[in-house]
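Protocol step 6 of 9: fold each sequence in the batch and record its structure tokens directly after the sequence line. For illustration, a two-sequence batch is reproduced in full.

Sequence one:
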Amino acid sequence: MTVCLISKSDTPPFPPGNNLSLRRVIRAYLRNPLIISPNKNLKLHKTPHIMAVTMAEITKLRHLTSAGLMDCKKALAETDGDIDAAVEILRKKGQAVAAKREDRVAAEGCVLSKNEGNFAAVVALQCETDFVAKNAGFVELTQKLLDLAVANRCKSLDELKAVVVDGRTVADLVVEEGGKTGEKTELGAYEYVEAPSTTSYNHLGNKLATIAGFNLEGVDFQVGRDVAMQVASMNPIAVDRDSVDQSVIDNELNVAIEKTKEEQVKKAVEAALKKAGINPNLVDSEAHIESNIAKGWLTAEEADKARAIAKETAEAKAANLPEQMIQNIAQGRLNKFFKESCLMEQEFIKDGNLTIIMVAGDFQFVVLMGIYDGIPYVSYGSYSVLYSVDIAAGRRLWETPKS
């Protein structure tokens, strides 16, 4: 069956006396798919008939693919109502969008975590914009992928991508999501924990999530959750100082030593300048010196004198710094770094009077001691491994050897 379509550019002015109007042609088309025009100059184009698509078919296709209403309607029209063929068209559209936007950066997204018995997992589904990341359908898909990961006990990102649901793999679902949103969509991170006890925490906004595993059973729910919240809030680089990579320790110690030396030299220079009757704040940099000379607050002679004193004093002090004192101050700074960066030594976020500490023994224990909500308690749980994923800062990972 054929229909006739009339385009504006193909419709010439009707000659005088010809009572065929565009409106009449359209009316005739609606009554009969084949129009015979008495106007020999009128160009008629024949195209395949497009069958009507019912709302029930569109709804069914949307349920299968979660694609947009118009996308489903177009796909069904192209396939004469063949649902399976329409699904394939929508999949190909998603693949085309993914290929087209391969060079884009998926810096936004949704990250969620979940624990079930001795297994916990965290998934980050990434996209290009925050608008898409907050979309209910996008968050729902992230939760669906997380549920599949936990249910199938996936041990890697590749395992998760290969999981089949409703005849489609997780990788296919992610590609199809990109077709629906028009953005690059990818699984940006996946981590899991297996331990006798597990916990998880999802921060408000779905941008940050943490999971933790304990090598003891029956760890109190609130204690586990508090630990996961601590990780999310304070961003520790390791569970304890023994777990910090030696290269990180060496770097922090070197920075602390250099900073301590600079401070000692600066103090000596300031004392020498004050003794010479020169305000150290006026000559603490070349930019300040030039500015203060221009303002009349400092003469050129005073500036030269200050430069000479600063150079001589700095060289003399740097050559005679007491090594033991420098090491002691640097070690103090390193200890401060450990207290701020190692989970076991951090102050508890809910109460600065409490500290998460390590108890000596065969295992590493998480210990919260003190009074919380008016109730004294001492709770123990032992860490084996923990992970944290931050969609904004990129993936963060800390691990300690399992006992």
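Sequence two, same batch, same settings:
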Amino acid sequence: MAVQLGDLNVATQSGAQSALRRIRDAADGFCGGHGVRSMQLANAAAACRAEMTDKAVAALQAPRVTALHCEDEAAPSPAPERGPVARGDAGSALTPARAGASPSFMAETPVSTTEIAEHMIRAVPHGAALGMQVVSTSEARGSLHVPFREDLIGDPDTEVIAGGVVTALLDHCCGLAIKSARADMSMTATLDLRIDYLRPAKPRSGITAEAHCYKLTRSIAFVRAQAWDESADDPVATAQAAFMLTGAPA
């Protein structure tokens, strides 16, 4: 997700307000989800927007923007509309509120890459809502799968899984590769995520993604990833990403 803020003075109140508005607009465009009929997909998109906003605000490191964001997060939310809600593994409702910042997400300290992967898909609402499954983990690598479901279809005419699902899967898989490289659960913030869609996915097919964190510096992680439906030799999409490391390993 890219946000242009170079023309703003984020040290001023008006500049900080404009910056936060642009970040939220960018997260909205990146995650989508408006007008979808599936409650699970809508919840996943809302969680994605909250997470991407949190990450961008953290990466900006601008006190006024952070304060405004925290004020908005602390404000009472309107009562949710009645209707079905997505459920996590423990049966709790998956709400869009601050996906990456739940206390349970930060409290546990997994010791293996497999535990890290399982913890990520349980703790992050859009990962659970999309039904992400762990395929494999190893040092600096991770692979996840989203099985096909009717409510994840992006175009009813083609019955192809939504592009936003592929984007969320690639982003999540990149995060898994970084955490596998660092062997901890410290937070990251997406600085740049470029996705090239090479072809449409096959109808009614799930998507698998694999990512490799090929370079770690003290503050930046560089990752490559690809997603496919039937064969890794014929990818649906490829990704190149850079992430800010917001916490140091213990």
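Proceed to step 7 once all outputs are recorded. Observation for sequence two: DSSP finds seven helices and eight strands in the chain.
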